[in-house]
Design a protein that fits this description.
This protein has 190 residues and is α/β, with parallel strands linked by helices. The protein is built from three helices and seven strands, in the order αβαββββββα.
């Protein structure tokens, strides 16, 4: 039986399975990191004072789910996308790309059932930075209803499922290779 096991393919399959197992353990570590990050963001007090956004350096720190205040000096563009109101109703989130002191910042102005972007000429904005880096205005602007507030618990933490997939892939590779070796031995014995 030992002479019928090809060395190079066996090394490749075992190495690939080893890499897949390593990736599974890496994803388990990422799951812990993501859980800690969500916990850290959840600990930000809802009544924390708003931080003024005045420079690019602000965006290089950890700013997600932080209350901010900025001046939208110029509206570069307006667009609408799917959104959820603070009451849970589905409709449209209206987003303005603003020039805020030379920084291009997206501001989710508010929610409506109408897909047409509202009239918005800029001004002072207070809100919370969401997971995508947009500032969700609170209170809503441009006569719109408030959007659902960004919630750190909405961040997906599916790393445990990814880990399970990598472990399954490794097991599958080894099982299939085992069947291939068994078939090879059966053909040789015939």
């Amino acid at each position: 039986m030992m002479r019928s096991i090809p060395i190079i393919p066996t090394i490749l399959v075992v190495a690939a399975a080893g890499v897949m197992v390593w990736l599974g353990f890496w994803q388990l570590g990422r799951a812990d990191e993501k859980a800690a990050m969500i916990e850290r963001f959840s600990a930000i007090p809802a009544d924390a004072p708003a931080v003024p956004v005045r420079s690019r350096e602000f965006w290089q720190g950890e700013v997600l789910f932080t209350r901010v205040v900025l001046d939208c000096d110029e509206v570069i563009s307006l667009r609408s996308t799917a959104g959820t109101s603070v009451r849970g109703a589905k409709g449209f989130a209206h987003i303005a790309k603003c020039n805020a002191g030379g920084l291009p910042i997206e501001v989710a102005l508010g929610w409506s059932r109408d897909p047409a972007p509202p009239v918005y000429d800029g001004g002072s904005v207070e809100g919370i930075v969401d997971a995508g880096g947009k500032v969700v205005a609170n209170p809503a602007l441009a006569d719109l209803e408030p959007l659902a507030k960004p919630d750190p618990n909405d961040l997906p933490n599916n790393h445990l499922a990814y880990a399970g997939q990598w472990f399954f892939f490794a097991l599958t590779a080894l099982v299939i290779y085992g069947f291939a070796l068994k078939s090879r031995v059966a053909k040789r014995d015939d």
